[in-house]
Amino acid sequence: MARALDPALATAISAGKFQPFFIAQLSFRSSIQWVWTGYGTIIWNSQPIIGIGSLAKIGSIQEGTDVHAFGTTVTLSGIDPVLLADCITDMQPGAQAQMWFGCLANGVIVGSPYQVFNGTMDQPSVSMGVDSISITLALETKMLDLSRASNLRYTSASQRVLYPTDTAFGWVESLNDQADVWG
Predict the structure, then answer these.
(1) Does residue 1 surpass a pLDDT of 60?
(2) Which of 138, 137, 116 has the alpha carbon at shortest distance from 61?
(3) In the chain, N or C: fewer CB atoms in 10 Å?
(4) How far is the C-alpha of 134 from the C-alpha of 128, rounded, in Å?
(5) Inter-residue contact 38 to 23 (CB < 8 Å)
(6) How far apart are CA 121 and CA 83, in angstroms?
(7) What is the share, in percent, of the chain residues with pLDDT greater than 70?
(8) Does residue 1 form part of some domain?
(9) Are residues 82 and 120 in the same domain?
């Protein structure tokens, strides 16, 4: 697959003198959080992005040529025990999650970061240590939805859930009781 890398980003990567980073946009019940893997706050697309430094760990991001749903993980550590319950209830499975890869040169974002992941969050898992608490978010690609049953039927009722004024499937129920003789 061809990559649509920003030319400035591609040049920085080719030169080999850059500071790589990741940006994550995670949707929670209360708000959408923008974080990055550095320290301090940076601005990208007029959006302030909070640096979480060593408090985050990103799992491997994969892709392949076969039809397979590759996911990843984001681990947030240093969670205050007082805020743990609020953190868990604020996480919403199925909410949007996106990640970008970018480069810094002299503290400035080079070009436009490249989107490396677009999907949804799954159930969080909590790991409690002696002196730290971490939450791991499993992120799933939208391709995983292809393996799930849609639970829709070819009935008028199922069609009207999506399109309330559509009557195209009104005849389907009558076919169940119809006995036709062939030949």
Answers:
(1) no
(2) 116
(3) C
(4) 7
(5) no
(6) 20
(7) 91
(8) no
(9) yes
How distant is the alpha carbon of residue 82 from its chain centre? 27
- Do 11 and 89 lie in a common domain? yes
Mean pLDDT, residues 127-136 taken together: 82
pLDDT digits (tens, 9 = 90+) for 23-61: 989 888 888 889 888 888 999 989 999 888 777 778 777
- Which pair of structure tokens corresponds to residue 135? 């939450």
Domain shared by 136 and 153, yes or no: no
Count how many domains the chain has.
2
Q: How far is CA 152 from CA 33, 142, 156, 170, 174, in A?
A: 34, 19, 11, 15, 18
> 121 with 25: CB under 8 angstroms?
no
Mean pLDDT across the chain, nearest whole number? 82
Please report the pLDDT score of residue 177 as a whole number.
77
Higher per-residue pLDDT: 138 or 83: 138
pTM above threshold 0.85? no
- Same structural domain, 48 and 14: yes
Local structure of residue 93 (DSSP, 8 states): T
Q: Are residues 109 and 42 in the same domain?
A: yes
Nearest to 123 by CA among 82, 87, 94, 84: 94
Say what the pLDDT of residue 66 is: 66
Determine contact, residues 99/88, Cβ cutoff 8 Å: no
C-alpha pair distances (Å), 102 with each of 11, 59, 78, 84, 98? 12, 16, 25, 30, 13
